[in-house]
Amino acid sequence: MDRRHFLAGSAAAALARPALAQGGPTEFSFFYPVAVGGAITRVIDSYAGDFARENPGIKVTPVYAGTYQETLVKVLTAHKSGTPPTLSVLLSTDMFTLIDEEAIVPLDGFVKTDADKTWLGDFFPAFMLNSQTAGQTWGLPFQRSTIVLYWNKALFRQAGLDPEKPPATWAEHAAFVERLTKRDAAGNVSQWGTQIPSTGFGYWMLQALAIEAGEVLANQEGDRTFFDKPGVVEALQYWVDLAQKSKVYPPGIVEWGTTPRDFLEGKTAMMWTTTGNLTNIRTNARFDFGVAMLPAGKRRGSPTGGGNFSIAKKATPAQQEAAFRFARWMTQPERAARWSIDTGYVGVSRAAYGTAAMKDYLAGFPAAAVARDQLEFAVAELSTHENQRVTKALGDNIQAVLTGSKAPDRAMRDAQAEAERILRPYR
Fold first, then answer.
1. What span, in angstroms and rounded, lies between the C-alpha atoms of 234 and 205?
2. Which domains are seen in the chain, by residue range?
């Protein structure tokens, strides 16, 4: 794939695109995964308004559809009823599900000009792993992420650790969390060494550990998983040992949503979570903090994550063309850079990091470059046919291990058996 930097301006690209059908304005709905209200909805509304002013023949109506999971359910329900939103931001891992439901169209047919091809070729390759399959492009990266390590520099100093040196390996991570966990004489913990959330996206966290142990969880075709491989079991054992053996990690389930709050309140000295939390932490932390690539086992690594633009198959051709124009407009380098700065998500293209705004931002806040740099070691997030069922089977077994009801090897055999049963018909 051509990976040249984006060269043509958005105005030139717009002039090069074919005209929409004449008549009244083309209207389409845009499902975005967030609850109604809040700053992010105002940002999306402003983008929709700006686009409409630049493209008076197109009207975009944003609809705030809840969580990613809720948005997917609403999109598929609307698809079955025959009136789906034309454009949606859905998890990149839902690609196979959306293809199997015949809910979306490949986007290659909308890529017609040299400027289009250059723009498409500039997305980071790691993000395209969950956006393309069988030689076709099904999603456009928009709000994408990797998992990174955050650490509280003040708590490092208190523990006698170098505040500028995060753990670079599993062994260092295990040693650091021992020193960072605070207990009273009775053994009650007031500060944990680290937190790796296990609800919601526990499979994502295990995938990071598995990559670092030298394993991947699934093939690129989305029809085979490898949950029972030795490295996956090793990764899960490392995770559970932090809680059950070393007791430097909260026992049982660690909530995805409360982990950033625990970090901000000093209840944990480190956390593994999405780079999408970066702006939140920068805005609200009352202490110096650092951001680093995840510590390495046999290798470095993180799965990618986050959402892509998808276009509905049942929309009219005019709506599909209008939606593509909007998605292309939203992912122009300057806009992708601004979205990254405002939210903490990774700028999705190389050209976004060449903009003046991004260069100025990174000069003042180098931590924002960590997630981008980690893409060199990233692999596709776990994505299969019937992905919701497969990841649920894996997530349920991860939680069984963390709550002490299963051993890691038994849990991963059970998860693999269930995934095999689900995916066998797709091979």
1. 14
2. 10-145+305-379 (3.40.190.10), 146-303+382-426 (3.40.190.10)
